[in-house]
Target: ABC transporter ATP-binding protein
Amino acid sequence: MNTVADAGLMAEAACAGEAHLQVAQVCKTYASPRGATHALQDITLDVPAGRFVSVVGPSGCGKSTLLRCIAGLDRPTSGEIRLNGEPIVGPSANTGIVFQRDLLLDWRTILQNVLFTTDCRGQPRAAWAERARDLLDLFGLENFHHRYPWELSGGMRQRVAICRALLDEPKLLLMDEPFAALDAFTRDDLNLELQKISLQTACTTIFITHNIGEAIFLADQVVVMDRRPGRIALVLDIDLPRPRRLAVRESAAFAQYTRTVRQAFEELGILRSSA
Ligand SMILES: Nc1ncnc2c1ncn2[C@@H]1O[C@H](COP(=O)(O)OP(=O)(O)OP(=O)(O)O)[C@@H](O)[C@H]1O
Model:
């Protein structure tokens, strides 16, 4: 499998422009006949353009809710989210999203799947097809443009989903546990490829994961969330040189970051003490 290779092309093909994300005192309550669910409480985050932020927290702490609000797919109950100073009030072409399930359409070829969003907008295919092909090639899928999703492995499908999210030159890339369903080897591969994209583009990225190691490996900053109602318990800057190799996970500095995050979860009663 090829890896992402052409830095110049990738910078041109993937993200465009800068995205400064500001999340200010965001609360989210879901109302239902069975009562209210307080999913998020007072979330404040300032993410400068180009930063990669990993969000890690226990199941149900509101990570996906936060991502959906940032994506404009849901509205906070209170508080505000701004992209480059503009309030986010709905979905935007500035934002690319990758979910845990790749959501590829089985009746469309790989190329047609990557072109899905622009097709939906009625934009001429010819204008986007070259970019779509370039992205697929960069992700090592040059021989799969005309195959169907069911002919691909889970890792290849998730690469396609990432290409689809990047097609529209988003400024902001939102990823909701994109690699959770993959085996450890494929996950390592995709972590490296994602790092290359981040280094070579101006994409601001919010990456949700349950995996502490993955969170630290990828991020400039790790946000640790407490259980519901989701609150930020810790913001940890990750000062490891880039590009990072997988072997960095064996370094003393990485072990210290892991200890700090684990300790935060232990103090919150989410992880049992390892001492
Ligand atoms: N549309 C909805 N209506 C009502 N409650 C919801 C809705 N979406 C999420 N919730 C509730 O809000 C809380 C946070 O859910 P969310 O999916 O954001 O958590 P999460 O941290 O992403 O969980 P996981 O890691 O398991 O994916 C949960 O208690 C969930 O049941």
